[in-house]
Amino acid sequence: MGIKTVLFDLDGTIIDTNELIIESFKYTIERHLGYIIKPEDVTPYFGEPLPITLKRFSQDKWELMLDTYRQYNEFNHDKYTKIRKDVKEALELMYKNGIKMGIVTSKRRELAIRGLRIFDLEKYFKVIVALEDTEKHKPNPDPILKALELLNANKEETLMVGDSPYDILCASNAGVKSAAVKWTILPFNLLEEAKPDYVINNMLEILKII
């Protein structure tokens, strides 16, 4: 059975916010905890909800850190957000060929939409399942199951594309196929351990899978 629905993680997959996220963590942790982190201190946690990651650094101050992170992140969002050259071309081809597409992200809806609109990508996606839309988040299956419900899509015809093990495990738990992107900033062995069905080197390779 062919793929008729493709779900995408947002940060690090559709848009490149790696530098934005790292700088937001660095600023927040230095301000509240008084030390400077390295990128590798936070990149393994990319893809999980922000409060969970902040609790890894401080159980006492995480709520204050959450406010600081969000203020810094939103203020600097557009400056640091980039896009890979192959993304828009691939989305346009899938859209023209009738593939249903959705975003499944642990990001808040407001910022998810903002990131898409910078590059005029919102028009390609029928649904956006964001942090607010489910009680349980990746790697739990709930976000993908919500997207399938909204799209009236079949699990057997769905592919989830992401840059973190949380995306791959979410797909596996939801009973859909998964593709890990090779351009992830995370150590790739973390994604391999999650056992994706496919590995892609660029966005256009999704068309071969379809």
UniProtKB/TrEMBL annotation:
* CDD domains (UniProt xref): HAD_PPase
Domain of life of the organism encoding this protein: Bacteria
SUPFAM superfamilies, alphabetized: HAD-like
- Gene Ontology MF terms: phosphoglycolate phosphatase activity
GO process annotations (BP): DNA repair
Q: Which GO terms describe its cellular component?
A: cytosol
List the Pfam families hit by this protein, alphabetically.
Answer: HAD_2
Protein name per UniProt? Haloacid dehalogenase superfamily enzyme, subfamily IA
